[in-house]
């Protein structure tokens, strides 16, 4: 069963401006050390940070929440390797995931990130299957 779906789209130039203007403080506020490492491995850092940012926003939507004191930016990690992406939830995001998961079910968080033509996007689907 589908528990939640979230989609987000952003302009890579907006992310590029944030990286230039806000720099390290912006990265530290929104991204974990592992996200940062993976985004900085690619040729276009702004595109990868944009995809990760969209993944976080899409995950907030799929969880039925928003960036709040209970669920922060760093509670959702979007881990990218080439064209593959996955999400790792902790803190308030993990708690929210547990709240929406029906008893006797195993939950999965599916992430798809893409980018091109100056845009980054992500789709997050949260599904649950009964425990056999």
From TrEMBL:
Domain of life, source organism: Bacteria
Report the Gene3D superfamilies cross-referenced here.
Answer: 4'-phosphopantetheinyl transferase domain (3.90.470.20)
The protein's UniProt keywords, in alphabetical order, are: Transferase
Q: What GO molecular functions are on record for this protein? A: holo-[acyl-carrier-protein] synthase activity; magnesium ion binding
Q: Which InterPro entries match?
A: 4-PPantetheinyl_Trfase_dom, 4-PPantetheinyl_Trfase_dom_sf
The chain positions of domain 4'-phosphopantetheinyl transferase read: 4-82
Q: What is this protein called?
A: Holo-[acyl-carrier protein] synthase
């Amino acid at each position: 069963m589908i528990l939640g779906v979230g989609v987000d789209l952003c302009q890579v130039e907006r992310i590029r401006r944030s990286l230039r203007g806000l720099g390290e403080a912006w990265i530290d506020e929104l991204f974990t050390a592992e996200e940062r490492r993976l985004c900085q491995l690619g040729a276009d850092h702004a595109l990868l940070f944009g995809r990760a940012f969209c993944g976080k926003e899409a995950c907030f939507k799929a969880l039925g929440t928003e960036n709040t004191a209970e669920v922060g930016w760093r509670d959702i990690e979007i881990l990218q390797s080439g064209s593959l992406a996955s999400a790792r939830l902790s803190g308030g995001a993990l708690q929210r995931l547990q709240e929406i998961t029906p008893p006797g079910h195993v939950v999965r968080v599916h992430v798809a990130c893409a980018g091109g033509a100056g845009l980054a996007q992500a789709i997050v689907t949260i599904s649950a299957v009964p425990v056999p």
